[in-house]
């Protein structure tokens, strides 16, 4: 991102955050080393990009994949489908979280500079490590508040293990239950002023301000997202490197609240969102606009 000069204008979404998360999930989940940040013509990158849109915009595929866990012996096609779900879960969701995080930081420069100061105070110019990233409590609260406002996945599905009645509604054993986590995390009963970006609500969560059952971005219980720690590590690692180099600035035409594409399983902006990235050591000289899908 920092390597582009003044002549750079708009860039496709696969660059930067999307390319970064693709590189990480390729190496951690499949042992395939790619560098999509510099080589978009890599065959593996092109194959993933060609089918990602169809997979993330169709609930039908995700519904089929969700039921495969009931099958004891998987066919070759089913194994491939299960492998592909790693990309839906590990690539697109983390990329989306990073993009909306950059959007929130552009809209809230006070929070952005507070994160930058925390990075300087806690790890300085050292290479970020797992232990170092764990010290960045305010950055984590900014990440969690972004995920609360715009969770990458809108719903979570569970199966009732026994019959239960809740407020007069009986859910029979074996019934599927769809929890609209995006609605829960915008409920003012659990999150006062839910439409406002307030990272401090998670700074205070150690005191019991945030009900853990209301923060469902990674699900809850034994079927909580298996990639939660990897996702948070990826997001914080990316932000440390990026915010050391650039400052995100809100463009004049940027709306306060992005409109999400209706009917999508994942949170996808209905229209591209552009923010400006300014090099910190040359803030008055270099401005690069980036598209946040």
What's the structural blueprint in terms of helices and strands?
Layout: H1 14-30, H2 43-57, H3 59-66, H4 76-107, H5 109-122, H6 130-134, H7 137-149, E1 156-159, E2 164-166, E3 169-171, E4 176-179, H8 181-184, H9 200-203, H10 228-245, E5 246-250, E6 273-279, E7 287-292
Helix pairs in contact: 1-4, 4-7, 4-10, 5-7
- Helix content estimate: 40-55%
Query: What structural class is derived from the secondary structure elements?
Result: mainly alpha
Output the CATH class name: Mainly Alpha
| Uncertain segments | 4-14, 55-65, 283-288
Tell me how many strands there are.
7
User: For the terminal residues, how far apart are their CA atoms?
Assistant: 16 Å
CATH level-two architecture: Orthogonal Bundle
What's the shape? globular
The CATH homologous superfamily name equals: Cytochrome P450
Q: Topology as H/E string?
A: HHHHHHHEEEEHHHEEE
Q: What proportion strand?
A: 5-15%
Largest β-sheet summary? 3 strands, antiparallel
| CATH topology name | Cytochrome p450
Strand neighbour order, sheet with most strands: 5-6-7
Determine Rg (CA atoms, Å). Answer: 20 Å
Function: Cytochromes P450 are a group of heme-thiolate monooxygenases. They oxidize a variety of structurally unrelated compounds, including steroids, fatty acids, and xenobiotics.
InterPro entries: Cyt_P450 (IPR001128), Cyt_P450_B (IPR002397), Cyt_P450_CS (IPR017972), Cyt_P450_sf (IPR036396), Cytochrome_P450_3A (IPR050705)
Pfam families: p450
Protein name: Cytochrome P450
